[in-house]
Each structure stands twice: as C-alpha cells, then as structure tokens.
Structure prediction request, 182 residues.
Amino acid sequence: MVSFKTLLKKIEEAPIITIWGHAIPDGDCYGCQIGLREIIKDNFPGKEVYALGTGVPSLRERISPMNEADDASIASSLAILVDVSCLRRVEDQRVWNAKSFAKFDHHSPNKEGEEFPYEDAYVEPDVIACAQLIEEFATQNSLKISKIAAEALYTGILTDSGCFRYFGTNQRTFASVKRLVS
Prediction:
C-alpha cells in the first residue's frame, strides 16, 4: 500500500484524471467519485477531471452530475479507481484503456485472487466507507474541500455506514464527518 503523499504526487503529475467506480454504484461509490473530482478540480484548476459512470441517478441533480469523456482523454489519463477492488468490477470497461492507474478502496482482497495489478493503491479494509479515505486524503494533504465535495463524501460515509449504525463506524468515522460538516 502506498501513502497518501504518493497518490497526491501522481495526481499532481497527471494532466488528465478519470475517476471510476464499481458497477451498480451506491452512495459511497458516487460520493467518492464526485468528492474526489471536486477536490482535484478545486486544488488543481488546470487539470481535466472526469467522474465516469452512471452514479446514483437520484443524487445527480442534488449534488452533481457525472461526466462524459472521449476515448482520447481516457487513453491519456490517470485512472483512479474508488470504492472498487479491481478493474474487472469497474462499471465502465473503458478504464482498461487508461495510461496509468491508482486506487482508493476499503474492501478486503478478492477471494478469487484477482486484484488491482498496480502498486499505486491505498486500501484500508477496516474503514467503513471509501469516502472516509478520500476525506482523510484531502485533510492530510491540506487540500481544500468545497461544499459539493463535502456533501458528496458525507453521502458516501452515511450510506456505507447505514446512517452510522453498522459495525466499523467508530471515532475516526465521526472525526471525518465532523470535518466535512464544518
């Protein structure tokens, strides 16, 4: 597992970034995609950043729509997977055409043995939601989190924690939510 600083360096170096989630996206997947997209756009205004996939239709109007990207942009991009363990499970299979890869995830390794074959991955299975990892990444790197990004990440934490009822919700989860709310 690489550090948040290593992933920040990859983001800083990439002129085009695509953000990908799992098939049949839930609130955490959508929240991570939109939250990370907004954080990158707000802190690195010269970059092209796309959150790709269907998202959660009921949230697109409230928080933010997803993006579309042409094949050339994807082929030139750093593909960042969020809330998904491996490339096979990504909703939009054009992800395979990306130039380079990175990942934020909170899922345990796949039992079938298929994993993310690239070294630039930050995976912490004991965290309740991937959105919490994205918030911690932004906070630890002193990145600005806009209202849209905060609402998207909060949605991810809220949904994956079952409104803070599920096992794995802890003091660290609430510290992340506190920062998002403020």
Q: What stands out?
A: Residues 45 and 149 are 15 Å apart (CA to CA). The mean pLDDT is 94.
